Amino acid sequence: MNNTPKGKLIAIGGAEDKGNEQEKPGADSGTFIEDSILRRVVDEMGGHHAARIALVTTASSIPREVAANYVEAFGKLGVTDLDILDIRERSDVKPDMVKRLSKADGVMMSGGNQLRLTTIFGGTAFLELMKRRYMNEVGYVVAGTSAGAMCMSSTMIYQGHSSTGLIKGGVKMTSGAGFIGDVIIDSHFVQRGRFSRLTQAIAGNPNAIGIGLGEDTGVVITEGENLETIGSGQVMIFDGHEISYSNFADVEEGATFSIEGMRVHIISKGHCYSLRERAFTAVRVPV
How many CB atoms lie within 10 A of CB 259? Predict the structure, then answer.
């Protein structure tokens, strides 16, 4: 059986440019939106004339405000078919929502609290449809920013501050939505100094690759293993496969730990990384 996904994941580190002057100090509104991450999302879903996008704001505590921001941003990109799926509790995940999801070319999941996404959608027909379409349909896109990106992996960080990241137990993990295995995704990575918490996450799960996404930065993941960096910042890769020493399992909760041999890579726009080969691949040439 071929387990290679035919669809694509677009994981974004948060604070993506929406053509909003407040988010880009000193810039004219819309200056960057045409060359933005959201433009890439739209293009991957078939372009603004064809794209039918399902917007999921479940992670947010202010879903109406978030939805309004995306309506404006996607509108600037010429998208006219944006379906806002207002799901706030598990009881909202009704057959009608699944039917609406089935008509979209892809999904955009907003930021907020990633644990809301997994606890509300876990085990539902809604999530199963997203995963099935991602696996089986060429051109289907699952995009998410911040919490919407962090939930994509099978193992997910749901709590932990950068100040306690190097203290055992300072980072809390749980099961994610499971679109992609053997990776752990973190967001707002550079801006919030989250190096330490992804270090701990990989120390405890050295079979996984850590993906730290900077703000207004993301990765397009094809075939479940080829990463291309997009956006204005950088992505950091944490590889624990060659750790030669670790006492993480032996120290007590609340204690410091030691590791030797963790590899770290930095990839910026247009550069690529193979999860399978655990190495840089060819730079993408713009069309």
Answer: 18
